[in-house]
Amino acid sequence: QVQLVESGGGLVQPGGSLRLSCVASGSIFSINVMGWYRQAPGKQRELVAAITSGGITNLSDSAKGRFTISRDNAKNTVYLHMNSLKPEDTAVYYCNAAHRWQRPWEGDLWGQGTQVTVSS
After folding, report:
1. CB contact at 8 A, 116 and 9
2. Cβ neighbours around 17 below 10 Å, total
3. What are phi and psi of 47, to 5 degrees?
4. Backbone angles phi, psi at 112, to 5 degrees
5. Which residues pair with 88 in a beta bridge?
6. What is the pLDDT of residue 40?
7. What is d(CA 51, CA 120) in angstroms, rounded to the nearest whole number?
């Protein structure tokens, strides 16, 4: 059993920054890849960034150059630092984790989501 809890969402102006945090608890021994997805109204949920326990990262094209994903294994926490935010970044951001026996895209552990709104 793994629980993921996100925090850090909110309202920010275009060009601003936010840092999202996701804390994992429970049977965290089984987790390998963790990441962030987002879902805007009327759109499919999409991958924003992912990171392995070893620190290897994968960012979507929209995130590259603006977002950074990091991980503190000692704190069981994954961060998404978002810079130069745009209105199109507005979405609910979900923390995701994959078990060690799963491929990253098969991760079925989800947080409750945190709203990010970018608006002037």
Report:
1. yes
2. 13
3. -70, 135
4. -80, -15
5. none
6. 97
7. 31
**Residue 59 pLDDT > 90:** yes
Q: In three state form, how does the secondary structure of 40-94 look?
A: CCCCCCEEEEEECCCCCEEECCCCCCCEEEEEEHHHCEEEEEECCCCHHHCEEEE
- Are 51 and 59 in contact by the 8 Å Cβ rule? The answer is no
How does strand 67-72 pair with strand 77-82? antiparallel
DSSP string, 12-49: E-TT--EEEEEEEEESGGGEEEEEEEEE-TTS--EEEE
pLDDT band per the 50, 70, 90 thresholds, residue 29: confident
Mean pLDDT for 20-46 is 94
Residue 27 pLDDT: 86
As given in the structure block, the two tokens for residue 106 are: 């098969």
Rounded Cα distance, 50 and 63, in Å? 11
Which two three-digit tokens encode residue 72? 């503190």
